[in-house]
Amino acid sequence: MNELAEIRLTARHKGLPERAVGMTTAEFLGSGPRLSEFWTPLVVLDDAAMRHNVEVMAAWCAQRGLELMPHGKTTMAPALWQRQLDAGSLGITLATMGQVRTARSFGVSSIMLANAAVDAHSLRYLAGELADVDFRFVCWADSIATVEAMEAPLREAAAPRQVDVLVELGGEGGRTGARTIDEAIEIAERIAASDVLRLAGVAGYEGSLAHDRSIRAIDAVETYLRRQVELHERIGHLYDDGDVYVTAGGSAYFDLVAKVFADAGAGADDAERTGGGRTLFTLRSGAYIVHDDGFYRGISPFDEARASDDEPRFIPGMFGVGRVVSHPEPGLALIDGGKRDFPFDEGLPIPRGTTAELGAAWQLLPGASVSAMNDQHSYVRLEDGGELAIGDLVRLGLSHPCTAFDKWTVLPVVESVDSDVVVDLIHTFF
Q1: What is the pTM (predicted TM-score) of this model?
Q2: Is the N or C terminus of the chain more exposed, i.e. has fewer CB atoms within 10 Å?
Q3: What is the rounded distance in angstroms from the CA atom of residue 261 to the CA atom of residue 66?
Q4: Cβ–Cβ < 8 Å for 72, 425
Q5: What range(s) does the D-serine dehydratase-like domain occupy (predicted)?
Q6: pLDDT at residue 275 in the model
């Protein structure tokens, strides 16, 4: 990851102070930057919160015998991936072969593609990467047609070893994945018979089957997860003596995944299979590193509003900053950040505080809300006679990390939400 320090900062990196232009990242960080130097709008990361969240998730998984391969598409930030790897993650999960290539360019050696790989160009690339004996790679397939689309390019490229493939089980109304266990078994049999593919377990995503914490939603998720375990057991005779995966777990229902996987043997001696291989019960939660103030706050089992005193808690590790540029009528202020700067697909930003200058203490902003967003403006509604002056700053709680990071090529990291000290710059590669 040393190359990140040598990236030269330019005027194309929005939000940076003018003096940063032309410096390398290392040079700028060595100059003692302060958040008060940065231009608005901004999305800022909280170092203390991120460290806390990474430690909490790593410890929780270790206590339950679960592997963690956090979904790197959340941040597409190699420096944050490294934090997760350093905390014990087995590898990084990604969503496209383009993301895989990016991760490989930064030296990531253990990758799960939570998707099918059927593009011939990327499969030929993968065949070349497999010459690295230390490279762990696994992808998914949910049809025999997918299997056949993989085989020809891998044969033509003379892949030096078989590609590990997991059978993906879906659910009615869900996303991808075989819709029945019997269909998934046929796919597993086809993979096991392949000369260029290796059957390496089962996979799936429960998050597309529910969107809240209602009894009905929890039942749907747990029913799906039990079907996934059933599939794993029914294709056990097709496995060789190598490691296999059973994997699920986004950032909303990982507690339910852990519960069902525990019943299936996660963390127990019987996770060691005959023949010397292991069953790697693996979570892929990714958004936990920054949590949020919206969607995940409302659904995560580890949000501070939901967790009991004896349970771990995540802390929001990102926030937006916008500056008031217009006060056109009583009770309305417009700030200089909009849809191109802040996420909005899983809820609008939430005003959390105001200050006259970055680096000064944040004051509560009661009765404020964001009612609408344009490309470069957000509408801050003020109740009870509240008022914001031109130039005032508004700190925003953000919802959905996956659509926050992709709007920024560089994000400053401060010591904590109340600190002006910038300790890092995080580069993203979407």
Answers
A1: 0.95
A2: N
A3: 9
A4: no
A5: 317-415
A6: 55
